[in-house]
Structures are given as structure tokens and as C-alpha cells.
């Protein structure tokens, strides 16, 4: 059986059929003559910032590391060491699914490193195309896939086959950026309520980040998120309502809204949709969306494996036969011109309210504790 390696540094995942063999974030911690990867590295990164790196998989090049070690001098070295660790779980050949923003040069570097690490690579496939190859596709359909330091927004089209039209890298809305926004919000609450800033000490900063990471992995029930930090046996705690965290997330995701046509449909990759508050934040921004099923990438790969692997040298597949059907254009909800807050209408364009400059009529949400609705005001 050919394995599937999903190259997303938010969670680098290796599948054998329906079985997950390996799943770890693309984070590394250089410790002398060794490297620690994944969650273990992430949970120590604030304690050893000069030894931490979480950009190597996305960059996929030979640029030197800012603080090299005897084992790793550049990004390619870190990629090699991480794939070497992963290769212990891969006894069969692999296909690698990659984001549409990867260049041919990056694919070449990846292929060489993977082979050097002992992986038999049988082909590459566009992740968004593979994820969506079972879904109905409208004329303006996009896939949003969050990575660690950016998001990949891929436009799809379905005619004879499902294909990638274009892919764009969106900065400022990757997983790390979303977590940083929450951490800063929580740190501000600590300062206001306890007069203590947890970001001024590496130990308490790491405690704060680790609790946010744990929250993203399994969001607890209830309307509040409680965080506890301990320094010199002195415990401090604050609670933050999830609505405030969702509002902070919507600020990070506004770049997605700005890139989408008003009548677009957004498909969310499974791990993207799992980020707490993400679907609600996108809904508040007026984005129409659907979530791709969690097992879609495994099931779709089983269906398309023969075509992707093919014969001869590994190649990149950017179009696949689809089990979905084209969805014809329907009358879309019109674009809003104003936002209605407490009976007063304010123009969206150029607004200073912290809201997006555009959106769909009827979109509702909460901003700074005030409920709003997007409307149209005829001139």
C-alpha cells in the first residue's frame, strides 16, 4: 500500500489508509548535537527561543539558519532531520500532498531531501484538489488550509475534472498568528487584573502558550477559558470569555475575507475547521463556507492513488476526476454598504470601527461588545 504524507507544518501527517502513523507540527528545537521535533519542541520554544525554528518546512530551501548547530546549518538540514524521524514510520512508498503555493524549485528540494532520508516518493498531489475531489463545486469555490505561519487559499474549478486555478499564500492568519493573538489578549487580561505580565518571563510565557495549545487541541465546554500561570510558587489566574477570543480570531481572518469575492464559497480543510471559534469568526465576517469531512483526504487518496503515482519519475498532480458535480451560479446575496449598530448606519468603506471594508447583506456579528448587522443603503 502507498502511504500519503500531508505536508502541512501545522500538522505534518502520515497516513496508511485510514490509519494515522505520524502527526506532529513542523517545529524544531536544536539542542547541541540533537534535534527535538513536534509538540515537544513547541512546548519548549519560549524557553529556548534561539534554538527554536518553525519555518523550515514552509521555506523548503538551503538558506542558513539564524542560529545553526553542529547538526543543522540550514533549512534543508532541518527538513532532512524531520523526514528522517518520520521515515521510521514509513516502510512503504509515499505520495506527498503539497500546498498549491509550493514552487517547482521547492518541490525539487523536497524530492531530493525525502529520497536522502530514505523515503521512496511516488508522486506529489495538490492538497486542496485532493481534499475537495468528492465535493460539489460552484463557480467561485476556494479551499482554506491553515499552516503554521500562513494560510493557503486555493481557487478550484470543476469542468471535466477538478483542477487548481490558482493558489495564494496569506500571511498574518496562520496557526501561529492566531495563537499569538489569543496569547496577547490573555496577557493583557493578566496585566489589568493581576498587574503581572506573563510575557515578561520565559517560564510563564511558555506556561501561557502551552495552555493555549492544549485548548486548540481539545476546546473545553463552557463560555470561558481559564488560564493559570505560576511563578515562584505564586499562582495567578484569569478567565477570558470565548466571544473575546473569537473576535480576536476574526481580526486575524479578515485577510481571508478581503481576498474572497462576495459570492464565493469557502471549503475548510478538516484541521483548519477544528481551530476553536474559526467557523463562527468566518461566519461573522459574512463568509459562506462548508467543512470538508475529516476522513476526506484518506478516502480520496485511496480512490485516486493509481493516477497520482503513475509510472516513471514522480510528478505533481493538480487535477483529478471528481465525484462531485458542478453547481451553477445562483443569485448571490448583495454586497453591503453600511453597518447598522444600535440603530445607526455607518459606511463600511473606510470605516474606523475595526470592521472589514466589505461584506454581505444580512451578516450579523459582535464587535467590541456591540451587535451589528451589515445592510445596504441606497444612495
Structure summarized in a few sentences:
With 379 residues, the chain is α+β, with helices and mostly antiparallel strands. It has helices spanning 39-42, 56-59, 75-87, 104-116, 127-132, 175-194, 202-217, 242-259, 270-273, 278-284, 296-309; strands at 3-6, 12-16, 19-24, 28-31, 34-37, 52-53, 94-98, 121-126, 141-146, 150-158, 162-171, 224-231, 234-241, 265-268, 288-291, 316-317, 319-320, 338-341, 344-347, 364-367, 370-375.
Describe the structure.
- It is a single chain.
- The chain is α+β, with helices and mostly antiparallel strands.
- Among the domains are: 3-134 and 294-320, ATPase, nucleotide binding domain (Nucleotidyltransferase, domain 5); 333-379, no CATH class.
- It is 31% helix and 28% strand.
- It has eleven helices and 21 strands.
- It has helices spanning 39-42, 56-59, 75-87, 104-116, 127-132, 175-194, 202-217, 242-259, 270-273, 278-284, 296-309; strands spanning 3-6, 12-16, 19-24, 28-31, 34-37, 52-53, 94-98, 121-126, 141-146, 150-158, 162-171, 224-231, 234-241, 265-268, 288-291, 316-317, 319-320, 338-341, 344-347, 364-367, 370-375.
- A six-stranded mixed beta sheet has the order 3-2-1-7-8-16, with helices on both faces.
- A hairpin with a 2-residue loop joins strand 18 and strand 19.
- Helix 8 (242-259) packs across helix 10 (278-284).
- The longest helix has 20 residues, at 175-194.
- The model has no long low-confidence stretch (mean pLDDT 92).
